[in-house]
Amino acid sequence: MAKQRNPLITVDGRRWRRIPIRTHRVTREDDIVELCDRYSRELRQAGDILFVSEKVVAVTQGRAIPVSEIRIGLLARLLWRCVRKVPYGVGLRSPETMQCAINECGAARILAAAAIGGLTRAFGRRGDFYRIAGMQAATIDAAGTSPLQSDCVILGPKDPDDVARRLRARTGLAAAVVDVNDIGGSWVLGSDGIADPRLIEAILKDNPLGQKDEQTPFGLIRAEAAEAAPPAGPGG
């Protein structure tokens, strides 16, 4: 069941409204730029920021891979157990997602990430596996973690900066391709017309789109008008 989310958030003393936009169930047959343009046309205003989930971008690019089509090799079978559990999802802790990471990043890079990550974790440092493996490994989602394609591993989107550029050209709005989760993590993977991606990450940190059955794969960010100061009293 979808969780009710507050549309407003305050960041650095300024209030922002997040407007999720509901669509049909998106597939690889959809064009992400046309889809965002069509569904936002009646809602968007000048000055809005368009943000779209990286998962839906990847799905429209044909990067949702059915589990039945993934051929798991020996290296993936050995390495997946070495990936620590994380609270926001499976990540690469499955044979299928590990194989996809090897396919995306190359066996040598994944081996180096596993070796260095294991070594530094022994000294209390975490996250080096994904830092070395790269964003294409970090953005892989296991089957069952997204309602978009529940029987598929969803890879990270290809060239999110280009997607953002095309979205801005089509809609006239600054645009960002984002990766968010339900435990307060948000990353801008690609953007165009956005001066400070960290501001977008802060505005989206509570995941206003959701990742269950909301069917709202993109949305708008709109700055709320500042409240007028109360009039000064007599002699003020």
What can you see in these coordinates?
The protein is of the alpha+beta class and 236 residues long. The protein contains nine helices and eight strands. The chain has helices at residues 32-40, 54-60, 74-79, 95-105, 107-121, 128-133, 135-138, 160-171, 197-203, and strands spanning 8-11, 14-21, 49-53, 64-66, 152-154, 174-180, 186-192, 218-223. The strands form two sheets. Strands 1-2-8-3-6-7 form a six-stranded mixed β-sheet, with helices on both faces. Strands 4-5 form a two-stranded antiparallel ribbon. Helix 1 packs parallel to helix 8 (160-171) and helix 4 (95-105) packs across helix 5. The longest helix has 15 residues, at 107-121. 39% of the residues are buried.
Overall geometry: globular
Give the full name of the CATH homologous superfamily of the largest domain. CofE-like
> What is the level-2 CATH architecture name of the largest domain?
2-Layer Sandwich
Rg (C-alpha, Å): 20 Å
Q: What is the count of structural domains?
A: 2
CATH class of the largest domain: Alpha Beta
Structural class of the helices, strands and pairings?
A: alpha+beta
Instruction: State the helical fraction.
Output: 25-40%
Q: Main β-sheet, in a few words?
A: 6 strands, mixed
The name of the CATH topology of the largest domain is 60s Ribosomal Protein L30, Chain: A
How much of the sequence lies in strands comes to: 15-25%
Number of helices: 9
